[in-house]
Amino acid sequence: MDFLTFSSLSDDLFNNNLFDIEESSSSTDTFDLFTGSSINTQIVGTAESSITINTNDSYNKTIITGDGNDYISAGLGNDTITAGSGSDTFAFNSPFEGVDTITDFSIQQDDKLQISGAGFGIGKNDFNRFTYDPATGGFYFDTTQLATLPLNLSFEQTTNIIIV
Question: Which residues 6+ apart lie within 8 Å of 118 measured at CB?
Fold first, then answer.
């Protein structure tokens, strides 16, 4: 397993044969996983983090961030995400990215599921296409499961989903 740790968005990060990490003008770190030597990857952020993973490979990743308001777009794969405390945003760009497990999605901390309207082929008010099953934690777009959230949340589509 490959392991990458950073402590803030301003840290200088490195390049190696698995990660191509670029600092953008908005201080958002972009992780670009290449076809390579590892199938399972762990990425850890220890401060307010913005993690976007761009890949055409469906690696199963473990993503852990620290306290703060984090933005995570895990990309392809059946990923496990733990975002810690803070108002976190979990982005989904298409219904075909895999089924992610979000271990600590919290209504009380104002966590959000961000949906790409273009990627899903929907309008900004198509909340009725999404369902949450409190008995299983399943979060669905039509009949396609996108994620597993904690059980028995007081989930409301218009409050907990953002369509962009």
Answer: none
